[in-house]
């Protein structure tokens, strides 16, 4: 009898082809984008695997409801703050994520936001569309070049290193802060220098947030930290919204205490604060770090491979350890 997999979102089927061949897979019905939490709660006792999306809450209540059959939650994301990991571990439910496919596209977007803010790309685009709103003079619409500037990377993991590679190719200097220093070989590869957190804030022209979200990183960037930045600094966040105090950032942008910000994530989820929306020196995107046709299918293949290898053997991107796995 085939194992049963419940997928919470109606994704492209291409990346799920192998999973569909080997398992009994349930997607939301045609015309529906997603299952609600209540629907999943009712259905979960009949499934061995829950394939959740990054925005779908997987709490203790839901996992307990899935027992004794539920064995695995395979999360479609590199982040897993939507899942109660300690509860899953205590209940003996394995959790996996998809770190591989998200690296390059997220670094692409972070670099794109840096460039868009520094060169005022979206600002002048908006004003060009309004008759008389844009000056065409030599000293109007000035921005900043990337070459020769210092990029400070908070979190030198896979995405941070991918961003460093792009920065080096653009003749930027790289400094970073991490819980642990990376290897000397990695530092040499990107000519990257480790600095303390506050020093990074003081010396960087661009600051990219690439740390995972946790209780420890909530409001890692707040009013006090923003005050340490250069008045020409540009802050980019493609990690998780609550890492940055959004209202403190909006105030600093409004008062031009820093040059600008590029945000793909927001403190209050998909509800962007009016204060940020009012800032013309903020370039904002709706959490599109991995939203390309290629990556959506790659992530589906990765999440499917996690499930297949969990039962058949092979590499699995585990978040926790249960039952000897």
Ordered list of secondary-structure elements with their pairings:
Blueprint: E1 4-7, H1 17-22, E2 24-26, H2 37-43, E3 49-53, H3 60-66, E4 72-76, H4 85-91, E5 94-96, H5 99-118, H6 121-128, E6 150-154, H7 158-169, E7 173-177, H8 184-190, E8 192-194, H9 197-203, E9 206-209, H10 223-227, E10 234-237, H11 246-254, E11 260-263, H12 274-277, E12 282-284, H13 293-312
Helix pairs in contact: 5-7, 5-13
Task: List its salient traits.
alpha/beta, 7-stranded parallel β-sheet, Rossmann fold, 12 strands, 2 domains
3D architecture notes:
- By secondary structure, this protein is an alpha/beta fold.
- It has 2 domains: 4-97 and 293-312, 3-Layer(aba) Sandwich (Rossmann fold), CATH 3.40.50; 103-284, Rossmann fold (3-Layer(aba) Sandwich), CATH 3.40.50.
- The protein is built from 13 helices and 12 strands.
- The strands form 2 sheets. A 7-stranded parallel sheet has the order 8-7-6-9-10-11-12, with helices on both faces. Strands 2-1-3-4-5 form a 5-stranded parallel sheet, sandwiched between helices.
- α5 (99-118) packs across α7 (158-169) and α5 (99-118) packs antiparallel against α13 (293-312).
- The radius of gyration is 22 Å and the shape is globular.
- The chain starts with a strand and ends in a 13-residue tail after the last helix.
